[in-house]
């Protein structure tokens, strides 16, 4: 029985909404930058002249956030494993929000010269720091509050923040492109989504402040389990889980940033699609992304590994047909986006739960966040850049081969982990057991 002075445990509705709303805000912020990096920043924050060079430079600033993510994972993971999930989630969301709003008030290259891309890169770095701490904490908020047999279902809710955030970010850019003239959009319209994110951040903070600490972490704290420096404990005692978790995420990152960033870049340049037309096509694909996330979570309740391996095989096969579909006119490109983003939802839905189950409570925030963030560097940070180079130099089919190779590496990671669906997240023993042959 809880003592009268104790706060009541979070209700399922509180947990699921708090985990969803935060990641929705985070991914909205992240994706408005990704969209602007393709259609706005090359024109406003870099020297005029070579359009391809400006686009590549803009995509390079996009990559900075993925370099910053592991730093954010280590920083916020330290406090999340030491003092609690709730406080850390509030700090991570605040960091992301402030960095995003700052982008909306930055001076352009014409105003301040080379300082403009430097300031843009600094804000992007702040976004990466915040997201490095946000994602892992949101997943743990869900999974550490989940009843038995429902961890994959609960862990799916923060994952839904990705398609919802992307849908709203693309929709607002599409709306602004339609209601404003091109001159107005480049003058001030592109800034509005970044400034509006401040309101969304305040909503997310309010929701996060109403929740209590997860029962799993509270029990670990009561047992005095927290370690002094979680990142050292992860590297020393759980390095195998870290490697396997990173590989497990790899295909997910490559697939998503091909579908969202590279395809938009290539379609609006090499294939000559109007910007608004392809954004509309992406929005259709994102609906399938959202719908397949809960479907995968339901399947994964029966076993994580078989589901994730089967989906990764599907991604590898899809990579072989990627270029053919993309170049087969509007219908083919739309089918490519629907299939690719459906596979994305299937692999992304159980991913947070799988990573959280690889690490014991005292290092779970740090370990799962680091695996996700390191995979972001390897599988997402340079993916738009690498894909653009491959398509330009060798042909679009090599972009598909790149995706298939990433899927093969992910299958290797999945084969190395053991099935974790029956594990007890609240187990007191700190072990490095989630990997077979890697620990």
Topology of helices and strands:
Elements: H1 12-39, H2 41-44, H3 51-82, H4 85-103, H5 109-112, H6 115-143, H7 151-179, H8 182-189, H9 191-209, H10 215-222, H11 230-237, H12 239-269, H13 275-300, H14 304-326, H15 329-348, H16 351-356, H17 364-381, H18 383-393, H19 397-416
Characterize this entry briefly:
The chain is mostly helical and 439 residues long. 78% of the residues lie in helices and 0% in strands.
Explain this structure.
The chain has helices at residues 12-39, 41-44, 51-82, 85-103, 109-112, 115-143, 151-179, 182-189, 191-209, 215-222, 230-237, 239-269, 275-300, 304-326, 329-348, 351-356, 364-381, 383-393, 397-416. With 439 residues, the chain is an all-alpha fold. It has a single domain (12-416), classed as Growth Hormone, Chain: A. α1 runs antiparallel to α6 and α6 (115-143) crosses α17 (364-381). The radius of gyration is 21 Å and the shape is globular.
Whole-number average pLDDT?
Answer: 87
CATH topology: Growth Hormone, Chain: A
Radius of gyration: 21 Å
CATH homologous superfamily classification: MFS general substrate transporter like domains
Examine the secondary-structure arrangement and name the CATH architecture. Up-down Bundle
Number of domains: 1
Largest sheet geometry: none
């Amino acid at each position: 029985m809880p003592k009268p002075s104790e706060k009541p445990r979070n209700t399922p509705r509180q947990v699921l909404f708090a985990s969803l709303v935060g990641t929705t805000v985070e991914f909205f912020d992240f994706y408005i930058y990704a969209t602007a990096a393709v259609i706005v920043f090359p024109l406003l924050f870099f020297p005029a002249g070579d359009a391809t060079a400006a686009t590549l430079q803009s995509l390079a600033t996009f990559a900075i956030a993925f370099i910053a993510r592991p730093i954010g994972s280590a920083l916020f993971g330290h406090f999340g494993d030491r003092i609690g999930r709730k406080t850390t989630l509030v700090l991570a969301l605040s960091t992301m929000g402030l960095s995003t709003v700052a982008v909306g008030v930055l001076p352009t290259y014409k105003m301040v010269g080379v300082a403009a891309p430097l300031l843009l890169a600094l804000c992007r770095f702040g976004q990466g720091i915040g997201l490095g701490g946000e994602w892992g904490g949101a997943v743990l908020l869900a999974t550490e509050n989940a009843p038995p047999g429902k961890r994959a279902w609960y862990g799916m809710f923060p994952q839904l923040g990705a398609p919802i955030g992307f849908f709203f970010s693309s929709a607002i850019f599409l709306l602004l492109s339609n209601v404003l003239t091109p001159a107005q959009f480049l003058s001030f319209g592109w800034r509005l989504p970044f400034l509006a994110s401040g309101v969304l951040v305040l909503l997310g903070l309010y929701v996060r402040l109403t929740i209590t600490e997860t029962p799993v972490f509270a029990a670990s704290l009561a047992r005095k389990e927290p370690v002094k420096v979680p990142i050292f404990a992860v590297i020393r005692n759980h390095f195998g889980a870290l490697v396997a978790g990173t590989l497990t995420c790899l295909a997910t990152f490559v697939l998503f940033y091909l579908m969202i960033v590279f395809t938009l870049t290539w379609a609006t340049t090499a294939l000559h699609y109007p910007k608004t037309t392809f954004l509309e096509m992406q929005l259709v694909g994102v609906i399938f992304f959202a719908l397949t996330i809960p479907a995968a979570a339901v399947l994964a309740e029966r076993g994580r590994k078989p589901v994730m391996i089967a989906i990764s095989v599907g991604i590898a096969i899809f990579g072989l047909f990627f270029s053919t579909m993309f170049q087969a006119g509007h219908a083919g490109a739309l089918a490519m986006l629907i299939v690719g983003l459906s596979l994305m939802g299937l692999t992304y839905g159980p991913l947070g739960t799988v990573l959280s189950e690889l690490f014991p409570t005292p290092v779970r925030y740090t370990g799962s966040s680091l695996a996700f963030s390191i995979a972001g560097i390897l599988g997402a940070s340079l993916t738009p850049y690498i894909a653009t180079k491959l398509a330009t130099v060798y042909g679009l089919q090599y972009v598909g081969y790149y995706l298939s190779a990433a899927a093969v590496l992910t299958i290797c990671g999945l084969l190395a982990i053991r099935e974790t669906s029956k594990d007890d997240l609240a187990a007191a023993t700190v072990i490095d057991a989630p990997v077979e042959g890697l620990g």
